[in-house]
């Protein structure tokens, strides 16, 4: 006895859906491997001596590799000084940006006040200004304030550059949470502050983490402002990496040490992201309301 036509068509749709999922998963894996290969090649090259890297035949697996390149990079101690400066600047930028951007996003999303639209337009306009066009003004400002060649001075410039876009990011997260949730909590006896902290704030965790990641990456990778405001004795990691490459190029470039230095610059970013990604995921399911 043959199966009904409807059952056969349903089985065909199921098989077609499985085929599409398999194809999309395969495509996703291939794209992920393509994206991850440069990172793997950097780490792989950091473990190999320069004589192996200069061969015409590439070495895809670092058999017989060692950590000598890493030892050579950190032996003079300048790396740890640059690491401390970059971490200090990044920490200041993330904390201050999140505080200012969170309060500003909350104000323009939850309250109606005179000049609100002008403030939003000003945020967008500031974000459109080219950073290179403000280098001279920034240098003169920091010089008049006595903040040249200082962590505070660089942090102020970074904060001014990162805050506008961070406000715009958080504004979308705040506007996406209905104000009715807070009103319902206030009906249940909570104050406005308690309702915000218990109901709305946990739901904003993904936005705060995403904004923090953006601020951290901007402060960590920035090169030109640090080059203008800092001298040779105080370097962030991007400036230190450039100086390391120039020093290596004075004789012959040791690509193993260059790749080891690049890996060391990338490691704190990876650690930071691994630390916050769990909180980004937990924030998506926290702050649940009663049904």
UniProtKB/TrEMBL annotation:
Q: Which Gene3D superfamilies match?
A: MetI-like
Cell wall biogenesis/degradation is among the record's keywords: no
Entries under SUPFAM superfamilies matching the protein: MetI-like (SSF161098)
Origin: domain of life: Bacteria
The listed locations are: Cell membrane
Residue ranges of the TM segments? 22-43, 85-107, 119-139, 151-174, 195-217, 258-276
Q: What is this protein called?
A: Sugar ABC transporter permease
Q: Which organism is it from?
A: Leucobacter komagatae
